Design the sequence.
C-alpha cells in the first residue's frame, strides 16, 4: 500500500491531492479545501455497489467512527461532486489508508459476485 501527494487542478482550483494505492490499484483520492478550512481534505464515499452516497444518507458501518460530511463543504468549485465524503487532515495518513482499504474490500466483494 502506498500514499502519494501532489498538487493539481481539481474543481476549478489548483489544490493538494493525495492518492491511496492498494496492490497497485488506485483506491481513493483526497482533495484539499480551496479555502483555509483548517487544511482539511475530503474523499467521496461510495457504497458497496460503487455508487456515490448522497448527502444525508446512512454511512456504511465501516465509517461510523470516522469524520464524514458533504464533499462540497470542503471542496468548493466547478465540477465538485455532491455527495458524502470522508474528511481528513492532510497528515492523517492512517485515516486515508483506512478509507482506501474499505473501498478496496468493497471492490473485491463486487468482483467475487461476478
Sequence:
Amino acid at each position: 500500500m502506498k500514499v502519494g501527494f501532489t498538487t493539481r487542478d481539481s474543481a476549478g482550483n489548483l489544490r493538494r491531492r493525495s492518492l491511496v494505492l492498494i496492490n497497485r490499484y488506485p483506491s481513493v483520492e483526497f482533495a484539499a479545501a480551496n479555502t483555509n478550512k483548517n487544511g482539511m481534505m475530503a474523499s467521496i464515499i461510495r457504497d458497496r455497489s460503487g455508487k456515490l452516497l448522497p448527502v444525508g444518507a446512512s454511512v456504511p458501518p465501516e465509517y461510523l467512527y470516522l469524520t464524514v460530511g458533504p464533499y462540497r463543504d470542503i471542496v468548493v468549485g466547478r465540477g465538485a461532486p455532491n455527495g458524502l465524503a470522508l474528511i481528513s487532515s492532510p497528515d492523517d495518513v492512517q485515516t486515508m489508508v483506512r478509507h482506501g482499504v474499505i473501498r478496496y474490500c468493497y471492490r473485491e466483494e463486487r468482483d467475487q459476485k461476478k
Q: What stands out?
A: DSSP finds two helices and six strands in the chain. The beta strands are 2-10, 13-22, 25-32, 41-44, 68-70, 84-88. Residues 93-113 form the longest helix (21 residues). The chain has one domain: 2-113.
